[in-house]
Amino acid sequence: MSNDYVFNDTLPVAPLKIAALESCRDLAEKVNSHIINFRRNDIEVLKKRQENLQYRGYDADSYMLDCACPRFGSGEAKGIVNESVRGTDIYAMVDVTNYSLTYKMSGFTNHMSPDDHYQDLKRIIGASIATAHRVNVIMPFLYEGRQHKRSGRESLDCAMMLEELIQMGVSNIITFDAHDPRVQNSIPLSGFDNFMPTYQFIKALLNHDKTLKIDKDNLMVISPDEGAYVPRRISANNLGVDMGMFYKRRDYSRVVNGRNPIVAHEFLGSSVEGKTVLIIDDMISSGESMLDTCRALKERKAKRVVVCATFGLFTNGLEKFDEFFAKGYLDCVVTTNLNYHTPELLKRDWYVEADMSKFIAAIINSLNHNVSLENALTPTAKIQKLIKRYNEGQM
Asked: In this structure, how many other beta carbons lie within 10 angstroms of the beta carbon of residue 296?
């Protein structure tokens, strides 16, 4: 284990507890395992240095908090914490996109919506905030993050959510690849961290395909729209390759399924002929515009087209992706495990999962020690080191 996770002169601010809601239980269990390994490694390293780490609860068998949100027959719910949290540093984890969970209401079976998950999060916060030393929220997919700005007479749901959590007493809010990180302006005096999974994308892709060549002549990063250009440009700079962008021309005279339909994709950038192209975006929702981009790149004679998205929602199913993979328009899809994925997706030949559990564990461990998150926010050095190892055949 690397000594990067050993904090020599810093004790935790309080005993650590992970309050995992049912929607995020599997990911939280993996995070818990990594933290256990980090801290046992801490103790071994410090013993070798003849230093003593005396802190109650530091070397625990588990950091998971015993909590639940049971429901009454009417569909109403309550948050329950089954152990003392007095003086603890709590990290509440929730996946608001997990539609696989159900509950009974008046004899009917309802699938949990993002609204249901958000209410359960508030219930756990409400059950623990009074006595905990600090409560932090880890919400990988930012609740209502797609409604981040106002166009006409509309509600600003994401901003209202952030303000509500801060008013409840939450100290820090941690999310990943927010649809528009400027939404943090609604809580300018509070902790809000937005992390990017660039390193995990590259690591998963290099482990999946050992034939990739990372240079300007063989690889190119594409932003599928102008809104995602700036963060994707950072990814291209880290890899040392060229950047391209598609401009979505929309018909603003019509609204179809709640959005203006795309008329055409216009490409801005150098030639993609013979190159492996990485399309990097924050999410795959229905996937229609992403697949159109894949086809357009293949028509421009791209050698391979790889899609990297932080959140794979696949709201319209997987059949269209199967079709494009079979036709050769799509070579691979990489998404993180930050949101719920169906067993059917995990079996697809074209799908690769980037594991984020160790990254989240490092974030929690750092925050619990009140140390800098600079390395996590700017992983350029780690990416360069990874690429060097790959080029030397050490992966």
From this structure: 20
Q: One digit per residue, pLDDT tens: the chain, 395 residues? A: 455 555 656 788 999 999 999 999 999 999 999 999 988 877 666 665 555 556 667 778 999 999 999 998 888 999 999 999 999 999 999 999 999 999 988 888 999 999 999 999 999 999 999 999 999 999 999 999 988 888 888 899 999 999 999 999 999 999 999 988 899 999 999 999 999 998 999 999 999 988 888 888 899 988 877 655 445 555 667 777 888 887 777 777 777 776 677 776 678 888 899 999 999 889 999 888 889 889 989 999 999 999 999 999 999 999 999 999 999 999 999 999 999 999 999 999 999 999 999 999 999 999 998 988 876 677 778 888 888 888 887 76
Kindly report the pTM of this predicted structure: 0.90
Shared domain for 49 and 174, answered yes or no, is yes
Tell me whether residue 395 is in a domain. Answer: no
Parent domain of 118: 3-195+357-373
Phi/psi at 176 (5° precision): -130, 130
Packing angle of the helix pair 229-239, 380-391 (nearest 10 deg): 40
The verdict on 177 and 110 lying in the same domain is yes
Q: Is residue 388 part of a domain?
A: no
